[in-house]
Amino acid sequence: MFIIIAILIFSFLIFIHEFGHFLAAKLFDVKVNEFSIFMGPRLLHWGKGETEYSIRLLPIGGYCAMEGEDGESDDPRSFTAKAPWKRIIILAAGAFMNFLTGIVILLFIYATATGFRTLEITGFLDGCPLEGENALQVGDVVEEINGDNLYIFSDFSMLTERAGEGTMDVTVRRDGRSVVLHDLNMVKQDYTVDGQTLHIFGITFAGTEEKTAGTLLKNTWLTAIDFGRMVKMGLLDLITGRAGLKDMAGPVGIVDAVQETGKSADNTMDGVLNVLYFGAFIAVNLSFMNMLPIPALDGGHIFLLLVTWILELISGKKIDPKYEAYVHAAGLVVLLGFMLLITFNDIVRLVTG
Asked: Helices 2-27 and 268-290, interaxial angle, to 10°?
């Protein structure tokens, strides 16, 4: 069941992304030649007005083919005939729709909550060395770790894990003002909790805030921003070598992760909510990833559009759109090759277990 849900989530996110382009194109009177879900050979297609609608074989994308988008066109309703600011809105509309979808899913999930956990320190386990006049205190609300904001409760464990054990700069809100604790020695110790020995910091966060319209919207927004920050962290990890190809997952790996997320829940309803939460994470990640200035992605299109616009303003000459099309075609080939490699790694991981 969870595999089916994962596939449906992917399909919906692709549809909603392309639908964003489609709506924006129609808003600015751009001629749309084809609106396709997925890529590859056509399975189904039908025409309505000037636009052909199709469903294709390979569930790895989709597109909204606008007149003149990838080449020269004399049609006054072509994509390239529109003002640059209109083209930017059309290109960004897909990512916006994905981000909005993530927000809506999170709102639905959080609407079922009775309250939200906070980052207020409510106590320390016996012998915890992190409590003190020049250290952490009961009532402190943790705001930053090494300069990174804590948006939601889970950020504490995520950011301390990334920092590794040792000294950290921890910012807390104390008595209404921010206090920076420089070089706080954040080291885990063994503590006995309910008869179990746990290797933890010894800090307890038992505080919650009541669910109201305000806290619901606040936690939804902060969670979405937190998801987006993970894109930045993941890219930095790839650049610095902290993460490699083996740590990346494509559609096959994500579907498997969704299935495991659902199966690990205590009951079916919790499983569905966990999968939806993961779906919101994917939606927000797609929106941020798609806006990266990489050829073939919408962010790459916007970047080259801006570069072309500036060059045309400086030179006074119109640049042939075919050159931009060449760049995006090359980027698409590289991107598809990369996706195939990631998918191959996903399959190998599944087979080798």
From this structure: 40
Query: What would the mean pLDDT of 306-311 be, rounded to a whole number?
Result: 86
The residue ranges of every structural domain in the chain are 1-114+211-353, 117-210
Euclidean distance between CA atoms 254 and 342, whole angstroms: 11
What is the pTM assigned to this prediction? Answer: 0.85
Share of the chain above pLDDT 90, in %: 48
Q: Which residues are catalytic?
A: 18
Residue in the structure block whose two tokens are 């010894």:
202
| Fold (CATH) for 117-210 | Pdz3 Domain (2.30.42)
